Amino acid sequence: RCGGFFTYRTKDEAEAGLAPVAVKSGGPYSIDQKAFIDPLVAQVQEGAIRATIESMSAYHTRYYASETGVDAARWLQGRWQELAAKIPGASTQLVAHKGWKQPSVVLTIPGVEKPDEIVVLGGHLDSIVQGGGSARSPGADDNASGIAVLTEAVRVLGASGLRPRRTIQFMGYSAEEVGLRGSQDIAKQASSEGRKVIAVIQYDMTNFNGSGERIFLLSDFVDKDLTAFLGMLIDAYAGVPWSTTQCGYACSDHASWTRKGFPAAAAFEASFNGMNRALHTGRDTLATTGGTAQHSVAFAKLAVAFAVEIAKPSAL
Ligand code: BES
Ligand code: ZN
Question: Which region holds residue 301: left if phi is over 0, alpha if psi is between -120 and 50, else beta?
Answer without folding.
Answer: alpha
